[in-house]
Amino acid sequence: MILMMGSFLIFIISYLRERRKLINGFFFNVFLIFFFFEIIGILVQFEQHSIFSLMLLFIAVLLLFVLLFGVFGLIFFLFWNSRVVRKKESVSLANLLTFILASGLSVWWIFVIVVPSNALPKPIELILGIIPIITFYFLCGFFNYLSAAFVYQFPKPKYNQDFLVVLGSGLIDGDRVSPLLASRIDKAIEFYKKQVSATEKKAKLIFSGGQGSDEKISEGLAMANYARSKGISEDQFWIEDQSKTTYENMLFSKKLLSAAGMQDSQGLFFTNNYHVFRASLFAKAAGLCAQGVGAKTAFYFLPNALIREYIAIVMLRKKRHLFIVGLLAVAIIARIVLYYISKN
């Protein structure tokens, strides 16, 4: 109980100090682990009661099932999801991430589990043996990211915002907003109207997005056109049409606000739920005083999107991760060298 409450307190303190930190996901996961063991301890304490015995048995069977068949289930789900994404979306590297991951897990399963260890040369066996360690390292990081992104979106924003930034994304036929982008705009307009209704305060809408090489107009202008069709008038929004990245969305939106004398204002930015946490890191880096609101995303799109977001998060701290993977590589090379020395 002490460990559980202590870990929860650490998480709360860290979260209240700054929501936009990956370490919050780690602290939250530590709390969940201690909470899980606390529940197990309670069930064991009352095991003599039939209902608690059944619950304990159910947890044991569930854990056993996950250990035995979890990899199979994950591979099957990833292949299924990649098939759905290929049907509903364009074929691109970003949309093939679940397929690539499923293929990699399948190859790993064949070489590590199916193929007998004595059937492989010793160096290959040692190299393959390090893969689960690297996988576990990045898997822990992925779960920390998921938890940080999940708890980040808990607080409901207050109706006291000065501005609302909508982040752009690719256009259809070069001039029309996609359903994904429309969901962001709709979410911002919905909040705008609710704030006006609740407090009569009108926030300034900022549609932020430059023009891609395959686009006829800027994303900012396309979003503005869409907003007009939803009843938003010219005096209610600004267009930021120079940004090419999420960081530039935040930075150039801040410049617009500063030019209008709103440098000390606070607001929100709107994107899709899978993207909101990483976008919040860029808002922090750009010095934009804004928290994120996530619009809903179709379930089939989420696995690819979350994997892509995690890869982007890893790349933000690539030196740290390369250092750790490098240490593991040095360790396996040392094991191979020692193996050949011992043979001779």
Automatic annotation (TrEMBL):
Q: Where is the DUF218 domain?
A: 162-312
Q: Which residues form a coiled coil?
A: none
Where does it sit, as one GO cellular component term?
plasma membrane
UniProt keyword annotation of Membrane present = yes
- What transmembrane ranges does the database entry give? 21-44, 50-80, 92-114, 126-152, 322-341
Q: Keyword Cell cycle, does the record have it?
A: no
Key words, A-Z: Membrane, Transmembrane, Transmembrane helix
Example of a GO biological process term: Gram-negative-bacterium-type cell wall biogenesis
Pfam families per record: DUF218 (PF02698)
UniProt name for this protein: DUF218 domain-containing protein
